[in-house]
Amino acid sequence: MDRYEEIRKSIINFRDERDWKQFHNPKDIAISLNIEAGELLECFQWKSNHDIEEILKSSKRESIEDEIADVANYLILLCNELDVNLFDVVERKIEKNKVKYPVDKFKGSSKKYNE
Amino acid sequence: MDRYEEIRKSIINFRDERDWKQFHNPKDIAISLNIEAGELLECFQWKSNHDIEEILKSSKRESIEDEIADVANYLILLCNELDVNLFDVVERKIEKNKVKYPVDKFKGSSKKYNE
Amino acid sequence: MDRYEEIRKSIINFRDERDWKQFHNPKDIAISLNIEAGELLECFQWKSNHDIEEILKSSKRESIEDEIADVANYLILLCNELDVNLFDVVERKIEKNKVKYPVDKFKGSSKKYNE
Amino acid sequence: MDRYEEIRKSIINFRDERDWKQFHNPKDIAISLNIEAGELLECFQWKSNHDIEEILKSSKRESIEDEIADVANYLILLCNELDVNLFDVVERKIEKNKVKYPVDKFKGSSKKYNE
User: Fold this and answer.
1) What pLDDT shows up at residue B61?
2) How high does pLDDT run on average in chain B?
3) What is d(CA D24, CA D44) in angstroms, rounded to the nearest whole number?
4) What is the least distance, in Å, from the CA of A92 to any CA of chain D?
5) What are phi and psi of B11, to 5 degrees?
6) Which stretch is the leader sequence (chains A, B, C, D) (predicted)?
């Protein structure tokens, strides 16, 4: 069993032990993903890139890692709920992005495809 | 090479071909993660759980999967930038959550640990 | 002086007493607005509409009002920073939305204009 | 009638003409506020403070103002739905923040009250 599958099972097991499946509809999981993404962003609020480098070398690093884990947790739960293979959809999206952002047009540019 | 590592390399390769590393500081990646999480949530805006089930069976399913992929893309980029092993931090967080949310106190409850 | 202007001045005064203008660039204020919007949404996480009605009648109501205030605070700060008249832009947007969402096409529908 | 009240009535009128009250429960409005806050943040994604100054002087300024208006729109709708006086709760929160962030402790610092 690969690592992702192992972790997905741990997350589902954690949930089922607490009888939380009843709360885990796709909409509420997507809400939770947004809340956790906001908490992750909060780690960088008002900070310069230099400040952030310092934080990452300090004891606060673990709290940032924990916020990353919370985002991942809900992403995995959402994929589980929607019966989505996370790796398959990411690979497909990379292929789409190659078409959307051709190298010769977007090299070195932060513009969006529709700008 | 496992699937995650393969995809991480595809994402970094996609980025480097476009010379986008210069934009990918942790703060802007976390911003992007929030924006994509919002776009994912938008798929469920104003929709009931029943509506969402119908959408998931329709041709709109792929656009939801694409938003999931976009969130995953930035999560993987952030881990890459911060030199974080995503699976390690998720596993550690599950262990922390077991302490934070003991089964006997939280079974069947949507309360937060500090409520 | 109207109420909005009075409050805007209180917010700026609060900020200047703490010498926080140095942090208040538009990007970080927009980040803060997102974080606070996430905290407001957290009040409704996992809750049904019925649960929310109960919460609004309970002592937790004030914490929801405080999150609303936090969102408003950053919205007012952003308008101040960008020299935007909030009421003017809202009125202009209502007019645009009337064109984007004509009554005869969108009455009773939660569809988006591009759906 | 003051400007805020005038605009609140325009927003409610816009909504009622389209028979959209049925969708406007507090949770979905808070979701919408998050989505719009994300779209506002997207205007600043990958941009430096200098880039943003340039954007604000360009024809793209109006699209930023429109996103601000969208956030305000849902904030006003939420206050309307929860029967909250926006100005009252902001004023109360400023008073709370004065206690939470005493000038002598937080002057010139971007730390949070619990840091």
Assistant:
1) 98
2) 95
3) 29
4) 24
5) -65, -45
6) none
Closest to B44 (Cα-Cα) out of D70, C112, D11 = C112
Nearest residue in chain D measured CA to CA from B40: D35
Residue A44 confidence (pLDDT): 97
Contact between B67 and B39 under an 8 Å Cβ cutoff? The reply is yes
Chains that touch B (3 or more CB pairs under 8 A): A, C, D
- Whether B78 has a pLDDT exceeding 90, the answer reads yes
- Burial C56-91, CB ≥16 within 10 A → b, else e: beeeeeeebbbbbbbbbbbbbbbbbbbebebbebbb
Q: What tens digit of pLDDT does each residue of B79-98 get?
A: 999 999 999 999 999 999 99
Residue from the list B34, B90, B108 with its beta carbon closest to the beta carbon of A73: B90
pLDDT class of A1 with cuts at 50, 70, 90:
low
- Other C-beta atoms closer than 10 Å to the C-beta of C31 total 26
Backbone angles phi, psi at D110, to 5 degrees: -95, 15
Cα dihedral sign, A100-D68-C9-D55: positive
Fold of B3-106: Helix Hairpins (1.10.287)
Instruction: Provide, as residue numbers in chain D, all residues whose Cβ is less than 8 Å from the Cβ of B35.
Output: 38-39, 41-42, 45
Q: What is the mean pLDDT of chain A?
A: 95
On chain D, the residues whose CB falls within 8 A of the CB of B37 are 38
Q: What is the pTM of this model?
A: 0.96
In angstroms, the CA C4 to CA D91 distance is 10
Which residues does chain D have within 8 Å of residue C86's beta carbon, measured at their own beta carbons? 68-69, 72
Q: Phi and psi at residue D90, in whole multiples of 5°?
A: -65, -45
Interface test with A, best of D23, D29, D31, D49 (most A CBs within 10 A): D31
C-alpha span between B103 and B88 (Å, rounded): 23
- pLDDT tens digit sequence for A57-113: 999 999 999 999 999 999 999 999 999 999 999 999 999 999 999 999 999 988 877
pLDDT (tens digit per residue) in C35-54: 999 999 999 999 999 999 99
